[in-house]
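Researcher: Quick test of sequence recovery. Tokens follow.
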């Protein structure tokens, strides 16, 4: 499978079994394959950013952050595939291509995020990474730990 930045994917349970981290969102709810993830390809690592349909849950959180800090880059609400979605950058985590279960499709076609939104997500995500480097961590998961596990696993699969 050719994984591309800006497309939506679903992840295998195997990843969540391997990385048992309380900050990760639950992979399945009510028998559905959820959540859907916006994906960023970064060399050997993929960054997965979960999407949610719970607009009413996250709108007040965004408003509170905007009131306090002037902006909110960790949570976005925008339209993806003709539906309002919450883009939870704060819940992002790294993984490998082998943990992708399948692309998210509508009528058999992979769902691609429009370029203007893709670029805004990438800018916000890079801002969060820069803040983390400076000592302000807005990620809910231990992305450094998960990235190290994924990079080690990637090295092992190359040598085997």
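Model:
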């Amino acid at each position: 499978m050719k994984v591309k930045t800006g497309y939506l994917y679903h992840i295998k349970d195997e990843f969540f079994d391997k990385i048992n981290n309380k900050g990760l969102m639950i992979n399945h709810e009510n028998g559905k394959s959820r959540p859907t993830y916006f994906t960023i390809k970064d060399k050997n690592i993929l960054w997965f950013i979960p999407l949610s349909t719970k607009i009413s849950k996250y709108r007040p959180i965004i408003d509170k952050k905007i009131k306090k800090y002037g902006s909110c880059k960790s949570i976005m609400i925008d339209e993806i595939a003709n539906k309002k979605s919450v883009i939870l950058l704060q819940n992002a985590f790294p993984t490998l291509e082998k943990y992708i279960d399948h692309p998210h499709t509508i009528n058999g076609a992979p769902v691609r995020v429009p370029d203007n939104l893709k670029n805004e997500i990438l800018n916000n995500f890079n801002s969060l990474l820069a803040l983390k480097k400076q000592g302000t961590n807005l990620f809910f998961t231990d992305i450094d730990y998960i990235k190290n596990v994924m990079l080690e696993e990637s090295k092992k699969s190359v040598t085997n």
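The mean pLDDT is 88.
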